[in-house]
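dumping this here so i dont lose it again. seq + smiles for adenosine-5'-triphosphate
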Amino acid sequence: MSQLVASELSCIKQDRVLFDNLSVTLSAGQLVHLRGPNGAGKTSLLRILAGLSAADSGHISWQNQSLGSDYFTQLVYLGHKNGLNLTLNAIENLYYWCAQHGVKISSAQLYDRLAALELTGLETLPVKALSAGQQRKVALARLWLKPAMVWLLDEPFTALDIRTIGMLENALNNFVTQGGAVMLTSHHVMTSAVGKVQSLDLEYRW
Ligand SMILES: Nc1ncnc2c1ncn2[C@@H]1O[C@H](COP(=O)(O)OP(=O)(O)OP(=O)(O)O)[C@@H](O)[C@H]1O
């Protein structure tokens, strides 16, 4: 079974210990809701699990190996910022993201994915001309474009309308049912639409 295992992680920011001795396992078929007050360290933990920043101590493995290309090819990380180039349009943003991630994709597939997210007609506008929710949808489109085993999602529901929240909930449920593993942060209560949810609570430490 595929597993992301973090052992005895610690993270210190501006002389404040956000967490220490934190061990967590994320397995296939599991959805973990990472919860906690503003500033508790949720984003910091997700970034460490995504290999984007280093823990101050501890170790992370994927399939019993240190994080490397085997892991990164199976990972989709979405930060709380969208990671879009605002001067490029949605098609260009997703095309370059796919290329970076080794995903072969046709222009027709990109148009179809944007249509599924109700962005028809907006595909070739610079992303800066889209609304906050529309920009979030472009970022989220990546979930459907890259075959992956792990999703690490920082506030994925932010700015989405109710229909798109439903779409994302279904996508999460399907992904986990098919053996994917998800850790996400959200200040909202998870509904039953996402399936079985486990919680991991970070407290704010002074
Ligand atoms: N690059 C950085 N440099 C200095 N301090 C940082 C940095 N990134 C985060 N911090 C600090 O670490 C703490 C935790 O931040 P983090 O973004 O992980 O919290 P969070 O739990 O995700 O909060 P929120 O719910 O508001 O998104 C905050 O006090 C923040 O100021």
